[in-house]
Amino acid sequence: xxxxxxxxxxxxxxxxxxxxxxxEAGVPYVDVAxxxxxxxxxxxxxxxxxxxxxxPPFLKAGELLVGQTxxxxxxxxxxxxxxxxxxxxxxxxxxIQLTIADLVAEAHDTHHPIATSLYYEDQRxxxxxxxxxxxxxxxxxxxxxxxxILGRPEPKDYLLGERVTYADLSLFxxxxxxxxxxxxxxxxxxxxxxxxxxLHDRVAQRPRIAAYLASKRRLPFNEExxxxxxxxxxxxxxxxxxxxxx
Length: 246
Prior knowledge:
Blueprint: E1 3-6, H1 15-25, E2 29-31, H2 38-46, E3 58-61, E4 64-67, H3 69-79, H4 87-111, H5 124-151, H6 166-181, H7 183-189, H8 194-204, H9 207-213
Helix pairs in contact: 1-3, 1-6, 1-9, 3-4, 4-5, 4-6, 6-7, 6-8
C-alpha cells in the first residue's frame, strides 16, 4: 500500500517534514497534489465528512486519514521505526517535534507578522522588527535547547543517541530552512552550535535522504513557503546571541 500525502505542490512547507520521514523510511508514497488532477482531489478530501483536515498536510493510509504535521509524524514514527517503542520515548520525540513546530511558526511570522492575508510588501517595517528579534533572541533560545539535548549527558549523533528519529529529520529541515532564509545571520549563529550543525550534516548524508535531496522530488526553497529569503530581513545576529547550550 502506498501512502497518499496531500500538500501544496509548489512548496516544501510543512509537508516537507512528512516527506523526509517517508523518504527515510523507504516506503512508497504519492505526492497527490503534484499528480494530474491532484489539487482537485486534495480540496475534495479537505471537505470530506469524516475527520476533515483544517489545512494540508494530511496523510491517507488505507481508510485512515491523519492530519497535522506532528500528528502524522507520530503515526509514521511508530509504524516505521522512526520513534522509540516505549510510551515515554514516543512522547519525548513528539515533544521535540512540537517544539520544532513552534520555531517553524515563528520563522513564518518574520515575513508575515501582522496577517497572512496581507502581502509581505504590506508589512515590511513590522517584518524587519520581527526578524531582528527572531534572529537575536528566538533562534538562540531554541537552538540552546536543541544543542543541550544533543550534548547531555555527553555529545551524541542524534537526539536519542545512535538511533535516528523523525525529530532528527525535522531538525535537519529546520536548520536548512533557516540557513536559506537568513544565510548571513545563520553563518554566525551556527558556529555556536556544533552538535546541531553536525546533526544537520549527518542527516543530509544518510543514504535515502541524500538520494532524495539530489532528486527532483525535493522542491527548492522559494518565497512562497515558510522559509523565505529577503535580504533586508537577513540581519547579522547581535554579538551576544548564538552561544551554544548544554
